[in-house]
Design a protein that fits this description.
4 helices, 33% helix
Length: 113
């Protein structure tokens, strides 16, 4: 049963401008591990969209560093939540990120098994 869903779309140009104008923008929204990956505007926009989608699916999420979005072995997004947001053992989290024509989009689904 689906118990939470969130979606977000962001213009990559908006993220590019934020990265250029404010060097602390990256530190504010990405965890230390996320910052150790390739930080193109496209990738950062995808992470932003994923975190926004997750915040809509998990309303308790109120800090960008409460969630970390890394890539799995096949490029799939792998999400780690802060300990205080840990989901119950019978709850799973699904996230997908996509890029197209200057936009990044993400969807998050919280499912009780």
């Amino acid at each position: 049963m689906i118990i939470g869903v969130g979606i977000d779309v962001v213009a990559i140009a908006r993220i590019r401008k934020a990265m250029e104008r404010n060097p602390r923008f990256i530190e504010r929204i990405l965890t230390e591990r996320e910052r150790q990956t390739l930080l193109t505007p496209e990738r950062v926009a995808g992470r932003w969209a994923a975190k926004e989608a997750l915040a809509k699916a998990i309303p308790r999420l109120n800090n960008w560093h409460d969630v970390e979005v890394m890539n799995g072995p096949h490029g799939e997004p792998l999400v780690t939540l802060a300990d205080h947001l840990r989901l119950e053992p019978d709850v799973s989290l699904h996230v997908s990120i996509s890029h197209e024509s200057g936009y990044a989009a993400a969807v998050a689904i919280v499912e009780r098994l």
